[in-house]
Design a protein that fits this description.
The complex is a heterotrimer of chains A (238), B (60) and C (475). Chain A is mainly alpha-helical and 238 residues long. Chain A has helices at residues 6-29, 47-74, 77-109, 118-139, 144-174, 190-234.
């Protein structure tokens, strides 16, 4: 029987509460930016969620990478569960990053995408990878050979990260005037930074809660699958 | 309200759309976890003892 | 200590050995922790009920399946061995192997004669047309020598596939290994007699024949049988131990590599599916661009024209290669993998890329879209082939990615294009290079801003992606 730890529920509750607080503070309390310097001053508040989402998707992709490597080298169930949860959460938070980023870019700079921005493009690449892996897991029979191929594609996707870094750097040399969308640089107003910290903490708590629950659910589903296979044999099938 | 002004309307719409997407996706994911939990709890196979220990038990 | 095992008058030694191997198919354990030697000059039958794993075991001998644990090796003197396949990812094609899979193991666009010639070349034996004709005569295939396998009946195709496996061995004086999976299935009585006769004469010549079969007549003439049931095997037949087997080199695969290249080209020339399905969307895009009018969609920046000139070629090279379907057809890819091992992906991703399309498409786009624009350097058209040539690297990388993600059981259900996004950057660098060539003319300095520098960077990035996609084994 699956037992969701109370801590995970608590983390979700705290994270959700913190998320609500972040939104409230971000909209109501965080200071305005100078309207003469910004084209769409209201839109900057997207960063209060956009940046924490980027951080957690980074964690999720790390989980996916670690799981892919673990499965590729040693084929442990725990590694596979990391691949499962990592790809789900990487997709969830990655989509958040690559939608909110361009939305802000359109509002502020009139440009939804920036081929020279390393982080944006790396997130897009890894989100595409996560989507591929989620779709493959759902469409293919769950055999070791399937998992091997998925882990191989996962590792391939991660090898592309440094290649993307080189590529975007080269592209930026030729196109330096193109605006970097993610410009949360230094010199941020302390109030803005405070709200972002609340956002960071809330989304991280949510992430941890989701990870624990996801892991437990996948573990329980695997056990159910084993029971179902045992039932198959009792019925004389194979 | 700090941001009422016609000149800020374009940014406001973008802000709302972005937040809806971000929060909405979190909510959808949470809902999906919940429905999986219910499926597991209601599954007939979950009330049986596992017939075979998983081949990789003890490897973790 | 027993002396060398004698079979049919020859002194025997193990040519292939399975050591402590556990093999899975899907989630089922087919065999667990088994040891088996294939001796030189013997007929070994794998028997067992349907679904017991005879085919899987046979294919494991050919190195087609990685054992979960244990290994398949070619034993050498002094306790050494050539690893054919182990659980740690090592892989070498079996020396001197021929295999007839249960399906044809061939693309159905091949003709009978082509099939036999290819199989012989891949096996390291270049046979004359006369030799092949004589064999076809014996197997009643001469009247079909120029016909494609697709038009033949199942029984005839079976004859072709068996002959393709045994012909190199019949013509060979060195010991070879012939693996046959259910060869009697689908054959008429006369063909079956011929099959039995051939198997017998293979053994007489000192070759090893391993057959997965239900055919009692074959089981009767075999030296040993291996019965597979419940993940274990039981051997019947004489036991043996051997000291100091003669040394055997691994067969060089050079002939097999060029045979693969010729196979890919010949099939495409016969049925240019790949070319057509690449050209059509490229040309559609090009003529749509022309009819809409570039002014309506471009922002007038110099790089726009370069982008639209290269775009049709990009569309053409990103299309899923028909080669993947050809390799999946009747498991012809598995037949090639048995002979080439891991080198199949790097090779086929290069040979299977669309070599002839990027340059003509780029020039066509230039003619259609540039409209005699006065800003363009007059010498530009003479150098457009250079960035177009570099598109081939992107094409090879795209093909390799397609092959990597097609390794799933249900490959129709996966979206390869998700992994293609990385190729945007090499493309953008080529757009920059083309922009330079169009408006500044061609010059040969090397730097990040120069046409040559940009083209080299683009090729290096595409080559890295290609390398990553071919180097990660997924099976």
């Amino acid at each position: 029987m699956v037992r969701i730890p109370a801590q995970a529920i608590a983390l979700l509750a705290l994270g959700s509460g913190g998320l609500v607080a972040t939104i409230f503070l971000g909209i109501m309390w965080a200071p305005d930016v100078n309207p003469s310097q910004w084209r769409a001053p209201a839109a900057y508040r997207i960063i209060f969620l956009h940046v924490p989402f980027a951080w957690t998707s980074f964690l999720a992709f790390g989980m996916l990478f670690w799981g892919s490597l673990g499965w590729y080298l040693r084929r442990t169930e725990r590694s596979w569960r990391l691949v499962q949860s990592g790809s789900d959460l990487g997709l969830l938070f990655g989509i958040g990053v690559i939608t909110s980023g361009p939305i802000w870019g359109m509002a502020e700079w009139g440009v939804p995408w920036d081929w020279a921005d390393l982080r944006l493009n790396t997130f897009a690449l890894l989100t595409a990878l996560a989507l591929f892996i989620v779709m493959a897991r759902r469409s293919q029979p769950d055999h070791d050979s399937t998992r091997d191929t998925i882990a191989a594609v996962g590792l391939f996707g991660f090898i592309l990260v440094p290649i993307t870094a080189v590529a975007t750097t080269l592209y930026q040399k030729r196109h330096p005037g193109v605006v970097i969308i993610e410009s949360e640089d230094s010199g941020l107003d302390p109030a803005i930074r405070a709200v972002m910290m609340v956002g960071f903490v809330s989304i991280t708590l949510l992430f941890i809660g989701f990870t624990i629950i996801s892991d437990k659910l996948y573990s329980a589903e695997a056990e159910i699958e084993l029971n179902l296979k045992a039932l198959d044999e009792m019925d004389g099938g194979e | 309200m700090k941001w009422m002004g016609a000149s800020e309307l374009a940014g406001e719409t973008h802000l709302i759309v972005a937040y809806v997407i971000l929060i909405g996706s979190l909510a959808l994911y949470g809902n999906w976890l919940r429905s999986r939990y219910r499926n597991i709890a209601n599954s007939r196979a979950s009330t049986l003892e596992a017939r075979t220990p998983h081949p990789r038990d003890g490897e973790d | 200590m027993k002396g060398p095992f004698a079979v049919g008058g020859h002194v025997s030694y193990p040519v292939l050995r399975i050591k402590g191997a556990t093999v899975l198919r899907g989630s089922r354990t087919v065999v667990e922790d088994i040891d088996l030697d294939i001796m030189c000059g013997e007929i070994l039958c794998l028997t067992g009920p349907n679904g017991s794993g005879k085919s899987t075991l046979l294919e494991t001998l050919a190195g087609l399946h990685a054992p979960r644990s244990g290994e398949v090796v070619v034993p050498l003197p002094n306790q050494e061995s050539i690893p054919i396949r182990d659980s740690r990812g090592r892989r070498t094609p079996v020396p001197g192997l021929s295999i007839a899979l249960q399906t044809d193991g061939a693309c159905l666009d091949e003709t009978v004669l082509e099939r036999l010639k290819t199989a012989s070349t891949v096996a390291g034996k270049s046979l004359t047309d006369e030799t092949i004709s004589a064999a076809m005569e014996k197997w009643a295939l001469s009247h079909r020598s120029e016909d494609r396998l697709a038009v033949l009946s199942q029984g005839l195709r079976k004859r072709v596939s068996i002959l393709a496996a045994i012909l190199p061995a019949i013509q060979s004086s060195e010991p070879r290994i012939v693996l046959l999976d259910e060869p009697s299935e689908g054959l008429d009585a006369a063909s079956r007699d011929l099959l039995h006769e051939s198997i017998f004469s293979l053994r007489e010549k000192g070759h090893s024949v391993v057959i997965a079969t239900h055919d009692d007549a074959i089981i009767e003439i075999s030296d040993r049988t291996v019965e597979i049931s419940s993940s274990t095997i039981s051997l019947t037949g004489p036991n043996h131990s051997v000291d100091d087997p003669p040394f055997r080199d691994a067969t060089p695969v050079g002939g097999a590599i060029s045979a693969l290249g010729r196979w890919i080209l010949a099939l495409e020339m016969r049925n240019p599916v790949d070319t057509v399905q690449r050209i059509v969307p490229a040309l559609l895009a090009l003529f749509l661009l022309r009819s809409i009018g570039l002014d309506a969609i471009s922002d007038g920046a110099p790089s726009s024209l370069a982008f639209y000139i290269l775009a049709p070629a990009l569309i053409a090279i990103l299309v899923r290669p028909a080669l993947i379907d050809r390799l999946k057809e009747r498991r012809s890819g598995d037949w090639w993998r048995a002979h080439l091992g891991r080198s199949i992906r790097p090779l086929s991703s290069i040979v299977g890329s669309p070599w002839i399309l990027p340059i003509p498409l780029t020039y066509l786009s230039f003619i259609v879209l540039s409209n005699g624009s006065s800003d363009i350097d007059p010498s530009a058209y003479a150098w457009l082939w250079l960035p177009a040539l570099s598109m081939l690297d992107i094409g090879a990388a795209a093909t390799a990615i397609h092959m990597l993600v097609s390794g799933f059981e249900r490959s129709t259900a996966v979206a390869a294009s998700l992994m293609m996004a990385i190729l945007i950057w090499p493309f953008l660098l080529l757009v920059d290079a083309t922009t330079e060539i169009l408006y500044q003319g061609m010059y040969f300095d090397i730097g990040f801003d120069t046409p040559l520098g940009l083209i080299i960077c683009s090729s290096l990035i595409a080559a890295s992606v290609w390398g990553a996609a071919v180097i990660i084994p997924d099976e």
